[in-house]
């Protein structure tokens, strides 16, 4: 009776066919077309916007339209971009710190009620944000924060999704033996978190940071409620002011939208590799 031996080989990358690349290019073009169309309208005149069939070639009025957007008296577009940057950056940094710290606690520390607390955190994901708007507005009013950026920043300092995501990643990325050996060497909990856990979860931090910044930058409902009537809105609220009124000048609206989109495009171009890497590493963890 003969014995057959099979050699185990690492999976090799399969080269894509022309159909695969054609499909990817089409998907990319369809995804990028709204941004391109926004740029076309932002560079056009009122006559070009209403022309039929519509033009798909950018015009030469971008600086004129941007000048109108940034000089409007009741929009405060420059201040809104600064406010959005401050808000999104603060929320992102706070979320990375608090969510990674909480994820480390849920994944590697042993304390009474850990699983029950994790269930509570997950259950909060099922509650729509709209249900808490009235209560949140009342709380911010008690703190006298309504109408300030503190009211926008405070509710986003930590997220249930971030805690759950970091808990799952840390549980697989950081071996228990590594944590125990650090404790035997005399390392305190915060030192273990800072010197061992954080370096191991950089891809996950990049993913969470990008997602958090984009969500904080694009947040509209709560800033509209708490900053209503103030001279210091966020970029999304300023865009809604551009689109308000009986007659909407779309070249202005889309010029402002293009400016508000550029920081996100730059961020994704810079951190896109880390985003893909973090998602893939999280997918192959067992």
From TrEMBL:
Transmembrane segments annotated in the record for this chain: 21-42, 75-104, 116-139, 145-165, 192-217, 249-270
Protein name, per record: Cellobiose transport system permease protein
Cited InterPro entries: MetI-like, MetI-like_sf
Pfam families from the UniProt entry: BPD_transp_1 (PF00528)
Source taxon at top rank: Bacteria
Tagged with keyword DNA-binding: no
Keywords: Cell membrane, Membrane, Transmembrane, Transmembrane helix, Transport
Membrane-topology annotation of the record: Multi-pass membrane protein
GO biological process: transmembrane transport
PROSITE patterns the UniProt entry points to: ABC_TM1
Subcellular location: Cell membrane
PANTHER family given in the database record: ABC TRANSPORTER PERMEASE PROTEIN MG189-RELATED, ABC TRANSPORTER PERMEASE PROTEIN MG189-RELATED-RELATED
Entries under SUPFAM superfamilies matching the protein: MetI-like
Keyword Transmembrane: yes
ABC transmembrane type-1 domain: residues covered: 81-271
Assigned GO CC terms: plasma membrane
Annotated Gene3D superfamilies: MetI-like
Family of this protein: Belongs to the binding-protein-dependent transport system permease family.
Source organism: Paractinoplanes atraurantiacus
């Amino acid at each position: 009776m003969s014995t057959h031996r099979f050699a185990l080989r690492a999976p090799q990358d399969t080269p894509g066919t022309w159909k695969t690349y054609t499909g990817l290019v089409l998907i990319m073009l369809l995804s990028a077309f709204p941004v391109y169309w926004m740029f076309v309208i932002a560079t056009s005149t009122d006559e070009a916007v209403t022309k039929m069939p519509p033009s798909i070639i950018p015009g030469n009025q971008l600086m004129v339209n941007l000048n109108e957007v940034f000089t409007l008296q009741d929009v405060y577009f420059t201040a809104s971009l600064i406010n959005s940057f401050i808000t999104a950056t603060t929320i992102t940094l706070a979320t990375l710190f608090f969510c990674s710290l909480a994820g480390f606690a849920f994944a590697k520390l042993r304390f009474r009620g850990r699983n029950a607390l994790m269930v509570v955190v997950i259950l909060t994901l099922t509650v729509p944000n709209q249900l808490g708007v009235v209560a949140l507005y009342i709380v911010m009013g008690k703190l006298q924060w309504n109408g300030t950026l503190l009211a926008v920043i405070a509710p986003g300092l930590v997220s249930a999704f971030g805690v759950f995501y970091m808990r799952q990643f840390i549980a697989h990325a950081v071996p228990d033996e590594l944590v125990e050996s650090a404790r035997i060497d005399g390392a305190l909990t915060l030192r273990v978190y800072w010197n061992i856990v954080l370096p191991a979860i950089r891809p996950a931090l990049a993913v969470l940071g990008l997602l958090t910044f984009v969500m904080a930058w694009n947040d509209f409902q709560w800033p509209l409620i708490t900053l209503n009537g103030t001279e210091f809105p966020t970029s999304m609220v300023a865009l809604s002011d551009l689109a308000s009124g009986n007659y909407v000048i779309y070249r202005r609206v889309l010029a402002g939208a293009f400016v508000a989109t550029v920081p996100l495009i730059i961020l994704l171009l810079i951190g896109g590799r880390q985003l893909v890497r973090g998602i893939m590493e999280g997918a192959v963890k067992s």
